[in-house]
Design a protein that fits this description.
By secondary structure, this protein is an all-alpha fold. It has one domain: MetI-like fold (Orthogonal Bundle). Helix content is 77%, strand content 0%.
């Protein structure tokens, strides 16, 4: 508030000088509501199965689902080995997509002819259904963690590229010209001006990419894999082991939430609240 507007502020003096820091309730309301919503979903799930007389092979209860992870048969599923494989595919493909997406966006910002040449091609490649691309990736790279990471990369890189390119274009041209006039290198221009200014847009793309990377890795395991949570789901589907299928879905969801949570923590750390996008 400026001095002029303060003259017309009719609030009491103690209110005008009150510290607008968030209260403890404000700080914890959203996380608490998130926890309560998940607990409510578990309760509805349990009550629906318990009183709806739903067969176990159609929809198991949360208790039956948890028994596959902690019960005597848990060792037969190799949960932690398969979860580690899927996590490697998700995080590996996601990090690769982040690096490639940011570098391509930076290259397009530096060279308009390169952007005009490559961007239409990348858009066309992105239109290819990833399910149709999966068999080709298997032919080229065979089975394993790497081809599934490539699948996660292919589906997550484009939103990161688009949002990063937009963020780099939003930098004020006058500021860039000032740095160039001071003989700043391209690396200094990127690290000191472009990257900090584009961070809100980069994180917006990272959040979308985190969701898509999970889907890409699991689709890759469905199409061809010998390990991972997606592979395990196909194996237990044959025997109608629905509780194990539900547990695999829950573990995949937890991996996605972990990745998304890491992105949110980094965003809160690096980007001011007022500058965040989405």
């Amino acid at each position: 508030m400026t001095r002029g507007t303060a003259l017309y502020d009719r609030r009491p003096l103690e209110e005008r000088h009150a510290d607008p820091m968030p209260t403890l309730d404000d700080r914890w309301t959203r996380p608490l509501m998130a926890v309560l919503s998940h607990l409510a979903l578990l309760l509805v799930w349990y009550l629906f199965v318990r009183f709806g007389d739903v067969p176990k092979f159609v929809m198991p209860s949360p208790v039956d689902t948890a028994a596959t992870l902690f019960g005597p048969r848990a060792g037969g599923y190799n949960w932690w080995t398969n979860a580690a494989v899927t996590a490697t595919e998700i995080f590996g493909g996601y990090v690769f997509a982040l690096v490639v997406g940011v570098l391509l966006a930076l290259a397009f910002t530096w060279s308009k002819p390169l952007e005009a040449l490559m961007m239409p091609l990348l858009v066309s490649l992105n239109m290819i259904p990833k399910v149709a691309l999966g068999p080709l990736i298997i032919v080229w790279f065979k089975y394993g963690v790497f081809p599934n990471s490539i699948m996660a990369f292919s589906i997550a890189v484009f939103p990161i590229l688009l949002t990063t390119a937009r963020g780099l274009r939003e930098i004020e041209p006058e500021l860039l010209d000032l740095v160039r006039s001071l003989k700043g290198s391209r690396w200094q221009l990127f690290t000191k001006i472009q990257l900090p200014g584009a961070l809100p847009y980069i994180f917006a793309g990272m959040k979308v990419g985190a969701i898509l990377a999970v889907a890409g890795a699991v689709v890759g395991e469905f199409l061809g894999s010998d390990k991972g949570l997606g592979y395990l789901m196909l194996q237990v589907q044959v025997t109608l082991d629905t509780p194990a299928m539900f547990m695999a879905v829950l573990l995949i969801t937890l991996l996605g939430m972990l990745l998304y949570g890491i992105v949110l923590v980094l965003e809160r750390w690096l980007v001011p609240k007022d500058a965040r996008v989405g």
